[in-house]
Amino acid sequence: MVLEMIREPNDIKKLNGEQLRELSDEIRRFLIEKISRTGGHLASNLGVVELTMALHLTLNLPDDKLIWDVGHQSYTHKLLTGRKDGFDKLRKYGGMSGFPKRKESDCDAFDTGHSSTSISAGLGYVAARELKGEHHSVVSVIGDGSLTGGMAYEALNNASRLKSNFIIVLNDNNMSISENVGGMSRYLNGLRTAQAYTEIKRGVEDTLKKIPGKGDRIVDQIRRTKSGIKQLFVPGMFFEDMGITYLGPVDGHDIRKMVKVFHEAKRVDHAVLVHVITKKGKGYPPAEENPARFHGTGPFDIRTGEPVAAGSTDSYTQVFSKVLTDIARKDEKVVAITAAMEDGTGLSAFKKHFPHRFFDVGIAEEHGMTFAAGLAAGGMKPVFAVYSSFLQRAYDQTLHDVCLQNLPVVIAVDRAGLVGSDGETHQGVFDLSYLSTIPNMTILSPKNRWEMADMLRFAVDFQYPVAIRYPRGSAYEGMREFRAPVEYGKSEVLYEEEDIAIIFVGHMSELAAQVRRELKRTGYSCSLINARFVKPLDTALFERLAVDHRLFVTIEENVVTGGFGEQVMDYVSSAELNVHVCNIGISDDYVEHGNVDILRKEVGLEPNAIVKRVTADYLMTVGDRNS
Fold it and tell me: Which of 276, 338, 429, 568 stands 20 to 30 A from 551 (CA)?
């Protein structure tokens, strides 16, 4: 196997043309085989095999800096830098990350996981290079989907002022996760199909070069002019007009052509964009036919492409999808918004039934939130479905455009809590903290599938900003016997006894019930409270419980800092209630990748650890009262 010859960075440069062709095939077979067992990002990685090989043939790593936007397409890069053996534990706890990680390899220049960041990071590297008087190349790879993010344009605006080399590779596969939308997508479609322009440009250059003694000089002179050859035939080129040299389009599966273009790009003394056309999922028919499903996939059968273990119960996302669609049938003011996550957020069904009330804004959470605010101000009932970790990007818009005006926007916060294998950049463990800081914001979190449905109906009819927080995975089907109507600001008392009150947030319901059972088994009297509302707090209930309880235990899958538990503790202190508070949550740190059950044990969100801490705190409170 040629792949066995790749043991460290730059080994690919030892291969001949035939070996390079064999290597690309071997890499695809390797990735399909490994990801079919571990799960991971398949379609995006299959699409950039030759592109990654061409970059590695052109660059000298780790001296040169290669920055991947988002980074989920970096698997071939990891193979070519000697990390083949790490794929058996890809995205598993203690194993190799599915994204670039500086601590994992010197060849990973920048940690990534969210979109539209690579050009900004690359500019920082270029500025550092110039300040230090160094001469290495800096290359930022960005997808056409990521180019819909506003941060990319802020970076392009600054890149246009550069006086030294900076290479931007536009990996254009006409996809982000969902199909690309908007003006930039249409613009790139035009460039992709401008074969006549490419052929004319090549023909003009070839003809001019044939002029004896002067041809090459004339071509070089035209290239250096403000307009350039391409401007003679395609007026108003977006990138060229910004001052960024545009090269391409080039076939992203032709290594020889890409190497030639990349070497040409390295000679440019300012920012240059190389437009590369690739096919997402290339080489594996199921991924080519359905790249969205193979964007991030669990284990699957290679022969059929079908998942090997599909869940038997609905996920919270599926419950959200079904209930929102049902609500929209009865209320024509309900509209749905996604930021390039139509399938992931469950809005594909809504789109199918109500295409004119569905809006995909592309990878642009900031715009999506203010767009929702505008819809609400215009009299509609917008529901913006967004992953917790991506909602972080729209904090200012949530604060300034939605909540300052007290507009009725529903934020469906999907993938809240620990999400597992995607690691630090995707764990949704900060939303309770940052949303709770915003005035006028109401925050709910359901304990099971039925409460999820009830809360969504409540939220759509609510006349003010509201966020519903729910996790990835199967919706809990326990506690069905408890289904009191959702009442603003009111918690749900499931069991009321005395001494210890466990107050849990949302999908911590099953864990909280397990903790209560264990405490009762060992002789403790224990109440169980479903918080329901993280904001506002049910302070009236806290005051009543403080009369005959010595300890409040809060359980949440969020960082403790600024979370639900700290808010409860602050209220207990300010109201001078005679009760101690024990906060169970995630410590002030980033949680790495791994199976969610393993991660919960690592952060202390498992029954034995909680019971041990609660009993210690309870005995301490008894001692304090008796002293």
Answer: 429
The token pair at 320 is 């959200």
Q: Is 280 a catalytic residue?
A: yes
Output the pLDDT for position 211. 78
Please give the Cα distance from 430 to 427 (Å, whole number): 8
The C-alpha atoms of residue 607 and residue 67 are separated, in whole angstroms, by: 41
Please, what sign has the CA dihedral across residues 121, 127, 132, 134? positive
**Res 210: pLDDT:** 73
The one catalytic residue in 34, 101, 280, 600 is 280
Of the residues 381, 393, 447, 449, which is catalytic?
Answer: 393
Instruction: Give the whole-angstrom CA distance, residue 526 versus residue 547.
Output: 14
User: In the annotation, is 18 catalytic?
Assistant: no
Model confidence pLDDT, tens digit, residues 598-609 = 999 999 999 999
Q: Compute the distance between CA of residue 312 and CA of residue 475 in angstroms, rounded to an integer.
A: 11
Q: Tell me which residue of 338, 366, 331 sits closest to 178, measured CA to CA.
A: 338
CA 579, CA 596: separation in Å to the nearest integer?
33
Which are the contacts of 288, defined by CB distance < 8 A and separation ≥ 6? Answer: 279, 280, 281, 282
pLDDT at 226: 41
pLDDT < 70 positions in the chain: 175-205, 208-209, 218-236, 310-312, 623-627
Q: Would you say 346 and 354 are in contact if contact means Cβ atoms under 8 Å apart?
A: no
Quick check: is 393 catalytic? yes
Q: Which residue among 50, 365, 366, 492 is the active-site one?
A: 365
pLDDT at res. 267:
96
Contact between 1 and 263 under an 8 Å Cβ cutoff? The reply is: no
- Give me Rg for the CA atoms of the chain: 27
